[in-house]
Amino acid sequence: MNDNFFYLGEDLGMGANKLFGAPGGQQVLSQVATNGTRHLMNTVGLRQRQRPLEIKTEHGSFYVGEGAHDYGRPVENLDFDRLIGAPEMKALLYGSLTRYQQQYGAIAQPIVMMVGLPLQMMSGETAKEFANQVRAWLKGTHAWKADGQEQQVEIAEVKLTPQPVGALFDYVLNEDGKFIPERASLLKQEVGILSVGFNTLELLVVRDRAPVERFTVGQTVGVRRLLELVNPTGAYSLGELDTQLRAGHLDVSAALPVWAREVNGEIEKRWGAAFKRFARVIVVGGGALLLKGDLTRQFIGKAILPDEPVLSISRGLHKLLLLKK
């Protein structure tokens, strides 16, 4: 590896922003709130909680990460324009980079970043424009304050690929970016990749290292759809519900079978019985944990769930950087 650069896989997820580099991985929940600056003090009889990370940028002050929606006005736009440099996306990236460095140490070198984007952003007439806009805001020197402390990194190069590609290379490459001998042959076969994220369900089929477009699609029936089913009146933000879900405090027993049927229906529309010819079906994303039983049964022993399905894409993007360097 070129020691002059820091190689970082970046999964711009709507549920959590995931980073993965040589030291390891980190995820920060994709919750952003504008900072109202009004705080209760000396609340005798009530438990004191630590406030979320505060990020200050040229756009103002934001709370970022778990619990952010409890401390300010939620900023919760799930359209793809968020990923091309919206103020809340910048705050989330800076929060993620802050947490990553707090865990693994300061990043002193310029960063080479492999970014995973939703399939919808990487296809169609607007794909090139989206790609240019993502590169434009990510590349360069970034400065911000995190809980009052000055922070700065340089992103020297930005590479882009669809998010499910990261899952494929996470499975076939080792941590050094070398092919795992018994798995390398999969790249010459037909492999399905199924990513059940917060916002989208993404299906990608690769044959001989090229996408099979008729089997490839992205649909907005990710975990957010499950949360919408348990929140018909909109009384809670999606971020609040996501926090409850991750903590095991949200009752989804009635809604889960309904959502599972919707997800399975979308898979059936695109893949039908064709999945029987796939050598493997790699299943990743936070939703993969919720639907593990349904998906493994549906794919008749072909399904593979990585050891860390939530971090699999960012880890695979990092491995792909090492392969391509």
Shape by Cα distribution: globular
Q: What is the string of helix and strand elements?
A: EEEEEEEHEHEEHHEEEEHHHEHHEH
Number of helices: 10
**Terminal-residue CA separation:** 7 Å
Kindly report the CATH topology.
Answer: Nucleotidyltransferase, domain 5
**Radius of gyration, whole Å:** 20 Å
Strand order of the largest sheet: 3-2-1-8-10-9-5-6-4-7
CATH architect. name: 2-Layer Sandwich
Helix content: 25-40%
Instruction: Specify the CATH homologous superfamily.
Output: ATPase, nucleotide binding domain
Low-confidence stretches: none
How many domains make up the coordinates? 1
Kindly state the mean pLDDT as a whole number? 90
Oligomeric assembly: single chain
Approximate strand percentage: 25-35%
Structural class by helix and strand composition: alpha+beta
**Total E-strand runs:** 16
Largest sheet: 10 strands, mixed
CATH class: Alpha Beta
